[in-house]
Amino acid sequence: MQRLLYSIVFFFASQYIFSDTFDSIKGYWHGFGLILEIRECEEKFCAEIDHIFVSEGKNPLDVLDNNNQDKKLRSRTLVGSNMLFDFDKNPDSNGSFSGKIYNPENGKSYKSKIQLLDNDALEIKGCITVVCQKAGEWLRVDIVLNESGQKVAKLTNPLAIY
Q1: Contact 22, 66 (CB under 8 A)
Q2: Percent of the chain topping pLDDT 90
């Protein structure tokens, strides 16, 4: 009976811990020249491209998924597309979340792991077979509307510049 009670307590405690960890990565992130929103997607979570930084005079909505391996998707805009998908809401024992990442530069998807670091950055790893390599870090941003109703992104933890 005592073993059953411990199992139930552990189950509920782990659910609380895991949900808190997933909640801590939801929101907007800047990385790879993009702003992405990590959010729930059914039973998993994903990251949708919210904005692409482009040269002045170019419209981010005109950037198409030209390299997608599925020729039918090459005419879609990258804004609104999922870059992360099929990510489990529960991290592994190392605190990493596993899923897939889409690389619009070559139109391929890879296994991926992401992990929230102590500095509140999100470490992104791409995996081929069982080997995972760090691809970069995303920085958390806050999105606010300015007086004209446009979205403005501000780094949550600005970097020190020397």
Answers
A1: no
A2: 62
